[in-house]
Amino acid sequence: MANETELTFEEAMAALEDIVGQLEHGDVPLEQAIDLFQRGMKLSQLCGRKLEQVERKIEMIVEEDGETRTKPFGTDFEESGGERA
C-alpha cells in the first residue's frame, strides 16, 4: 500500500471505511484491533488535513453593495449583512 501521506482523500476514506468495517465485525484479535484503530486514527487525521486544505482554497462569491467580491470559505456573512446558506 502507498505511504498514507500519498493517499488521495478518496483512498484514505475507503481504507478508513474498511478498518471501521473490520472493527465493527468484532472478530479481530485485540492486538490487530489496536493496530487497526491506530491506523484508522492516522487516516482520519489525514482526511481532516486534506479537507482543511480544500476549505482554504475555496472562495465564496458574495455580493456586497452591488459589487461581487470573493471571501475565504468560512467567512461569517452575517457580520456584513449577507445570508448564510
Strand content: 5-15%
General shape:
elongated
Radius of gyration: 20 Å
Rounded mean pLDDT is 81
How many E strands? Answer: 2
Count of helical segments? 2
Outline the biggest β-sheet.
2 strands, antiparallel
- The span between the termini is 40 Å
Lateral arrangement of strands in the main beta sheet: 1-2
String of helices and strands: HHEE
Low-confidence parts: none
Structural class: alpha+beta
**Roughly what percent helix?**
40-55%
How is this structure best described in words?
The chain has 85 residues and is an alpha+beta fold. The chain is 53% helix and 14% strand. The protein has a two-stranded antiparallel ribbon. Strand 1 (59-64) and strand 2 form a beta hairpin. Helix 1 packs antiparallel against helix 2. The longest helix has 28 residues, at 30-57. It is elongated and about 65 Å long. It starts with 8 loop residues before the first helix and ends in a 13-residue tail after the last strand. The mean pLDDT is 81.
Keywords, separated by commas or semicolons:
single chain; 14% strand; nuclease; 2 strands; two-stranded antiparallel ribbon; exonuclease; cytoplasm; 2 helices; alpha+beta; 85 residues; elongated; Exonuc_VII_S
